[in-house]
Amino acid sequence: MDETALIRNAQHGDLDAFNTLVLAYQDIVYNTALRILGDEDLAADASQETFISAFRAINSYRGGSFRAWLLRTVTNACYDELRRIKRRPTTPLEPETEDGDEVESPRWLADPNASPENQLDQAELEHAIQHCLENLPTDFRAVVVLADIQGLDYAEVAVAVKKPLGTIKSRLARARLRLRECLQAFRELLPAAFRLEEERDL
Fold this sequence. Notes:
The protein is mainly alpha-helical. The chain has helices at residues 3-11, 15-37, 40-57, 66-87, 116-134, 138-149, 154-161, 165-183, 192-201. The longest helix is centred in the N-terminal third of the chain and has 23 residues, at 15-37.
């Protein structure tokens, strides 16, 4: 994929070129929104809003990491969604079934190749991680999702959330500490290597 050419064509109104970019980035955008918001429907809405906003603003893109530019857009969409939820606090953050019951093991966490026991363990671990993520302040949650889950480097995260590099490093350090503290309540679910690392730190 010649990303530069696709972006240039999209800036000239080529919808097919933009749709190719959407296909290339839809998974990372959706997964970022899902980790920040913790809800499939909200993540889908935020992803859709991200690409609508990106298409409208594509001419403002001036180079650099297109992925970071796009993830800045989805992060902003998630912030907007979280602000809306605060105005209507009855909206649940946990995934739900069609009947309105909370999903303990959302299907997006399941590994179809794992044994039933491993699937359960993995689902419980992912649920614990998501629980701890949702307990972080939004700004902390965003940098952890972008850096530790989506794999952006510090500079790209700084671009995505429009904050100085030093702020990103500070937020990541504090967010990771809070996550580690939160996950201590789920020690039995953590991989052995992580438990050993924690014991060395104590």
